[in-house]
Amino acid sequence: MRTFINAISYKGRKCDVLYSHTDTFDGLPDNLILKAHAVCFCDNKILLVSHSEWNIWSIPGGTRDEDESIDQTLMREIQEETNCEVLDYEPISYQKVISPDGNTHYRLQYLCNVKPLGEFKTDSAGSVCKILWIDPEEFKEYIEKKEVREAVLQRAIEVYKSK
């Protein structure tokens, strides 16, 4: 487990993150799991999304809807944000996000193999304006320079290469 201080902003507040590699999400409190994101691969390339609101490249994913399993969130968010179908997926890491007032929630990260369903235009929410397929070794040229983001991508690449 690694700790990142003031690593992310959530609802306008800087939060600390406890980051862990994992191969299972068993034991995490389901009611505190709010988000699912994935490092998506197709033909040995990683899929990145450009968020129009923040003008950054990132991995796809998002917030869990009410009465939705986290696996359903993953599938829905990938399709909405990339127009890709998830072929298979596995856990690679999670983040326990701790806000300044002590509230916590979890963000799960997966490794996915995906298949494009056609041309990408925009996601239904309008927050993703572009997608980009890159060589895995080039991710640092695109993603926001934050250690916790780099840890997720490096973990995904390690797991992907080990297969």
Biggest sheet details: 9 strands, mixed
Radius of gyration: 15 Å
Q: Helical residue percent?
A: 10-25%
Low-confidence stretches: none
Secondary structural class: alpha+beta
CATH-assigned fold name? Nucleoside Triphosphate Pyrophosphohydrolase
Spatial separation of the terminal alpha carbons: 23 Å
Number of helices: 2
The CATH top-level class label: Alpha Beta
**Beta-strand percentage range:** over 45%
List keywords for this structure.
163 residues, alpha+beta, single chain, 9 strands, Nucleoside Triphosphate Pyrophosphohydrolase, nine-stranded mixed β-sheet
What does this structure look like?
- The protein is of the alpha+beta class and 163 residues long.
- The protein has one domain: Nucleoside Triphosphate Pyrophosphohydrolase.
- It contains 2 helices and 9 strands.
- Strands 1, 2, 3, 4, 5, 6, 7, 8 and 9 form a 9-stranded mixed sheet that branches.
- The longest helix has 15 residues, at 147-161.
- The model has no long low-confidence stretch (mean pLDDT 94).
